[in-house]
Amino acid sequence: MHLAFLAFVFVFLAPDEAHAKSFSVARARSGFSSREAGSSNPSDLSVLELFYNGKYAEALRLLNSLRGKSEIEKGLRKVIEATVAETSGMASYSTQKFSFLYEAGLDELMLPYLSDAGEKQFSFLQTFFAYDAPTPVRVEIVQTYQGFSALTGIDANLLKKVGATGMCRFGKIVILSPSALPVGYPYADTVAHELVHYFLLSMAFDLLPRWFHEGVATYLESAWRGEARGKLSPPMESLLHEAFTLSRLISPERIKGDIIEAQNPRDALLTYAQLGAFFAFLERKFGERVVPRLVETALSKDSIEQAFVQVTSFSWRNLWGMFGKEMASVAFQGRHVRTMMWFDEPDTVLKGLKEDMVREIKLGDMFYEAKNIPLAIEHYMKAKALSEGNDHPALVYRLLRAWLDAGETRKAMELLGSTAVSPEDFLPLLREWGRAMFYSQRFEEAKTYLLHFLRTNPYDKIAHEILAEAYARLGDKDGQELETKLSLMCE
Q1: Nearest to 176 by CA among 200, 201, 197, 152
Q2: What span, in angstroms and rounded, lies between the C-alpha atoms of 347 and 367?
Q3: d(C-alpha 409, C-alpha 425), whole Å
Q4: CATH for the stretch 1-178
Q5: Listing from the earlier edge strand, what are the strands of the sheet with 172-176?
Q6: What is the pTM of this model?
Q7: pLDDT per residue over 190-204, tens digit each?
Q8: Class of 354-489 per CATH?
């Protein structure tokens, strides 16, 4: 079984350079001529308007009528045709500020969590940037990388190679269904991350470079949850700490270069972690309004480099050096725990462990599948003893799950209290953490972990059932009714 990609590997790819200005509907609506929009044919703007407003079939019909007369046909025809084919027959769902397209079926389970994250993030960004982005925001959910490619025009192999789970392109957000990945991924955080791109593109079109986009999106992606801006996920924190300790941080030159295609997934994730931490550093040093001021100044100066100098009195490179010195001065107190990365396969991970430890884990798995929980626990405990205190997330998951299945809540809680592993180090751990809290009568904490889990994997019936009961114990009838309904949809 392959491990899931994490939601932190996002891709922002600008449209084809030759047609970049053709894709700004905001500029077209503001009175730009077709020539200024990248074409000498006024009808091309009408095609773009239709395409950017989700009227794909109408855009294709108009483009067909312009054969031989359209200057954007070469760059757009395949994308529009593929988009029409991919979205045909999709179900739709709308909220106050969002319009969703998705494949009818189990992906409907995502919608309450997606819409909640989207609405909260939109409200936050609206206040943060003092800007009203165009609505409704279109979010399209695809179940395969081929579908992802169809809606974005990006090669499916490249999308899979870099671990892309979300993209803001052509005036919309495209995200991958968690059903495409064995253990899901944090899709609610993905839509929040991509919404930052949506705001920045709406405000500044293509003026802001990719590294700025990714840094700000990483810095703000958890804001909808009420967390501190710039708070990194445990996997990102671990990766950043490891890279800092081993002097393997990504250089400024690489960060300002092509931060996606030329890197492997680990380097891409590390890049985002560094950039997210960098913008958190800027906030500490220059105040919480530093990012909006940088965007506003970049628009007036037509240069992000000049904006940094005017807003902070330092160049970007000087600030990056100051950021590195700050990390060194505080010895960067991060976690150094082995994390199950999105590109790691279980067998590959186990090969890095001692042979006798791997043997005990596999024996435990065999007995667990045979529903002999006591013997499974026995072998998992032997493997844990062989780990010499360096717990592995996959082993903690197995042992915690087995203790809970055996009704040994006290043992499960002892394990949680003694391990340095975070539930985000392996996404299925979130459900087991939630179960442990529920069985310990800690219902508010159970709700937090189970919600986090369902925002990575909405298809788990047991998680919905336990969360419904947690809501009942907390006196939240609306939450109980929703989760009960979702649990029935899992059947």
Answers
A1: 152
A2: 18
A3: 21
A4: 3.40.30
A5: 91-94, 98-102, 137-142, 172-176, 166-169
A6: 0.90
A7: 999 999 999 999 998
A8: mainly alpha
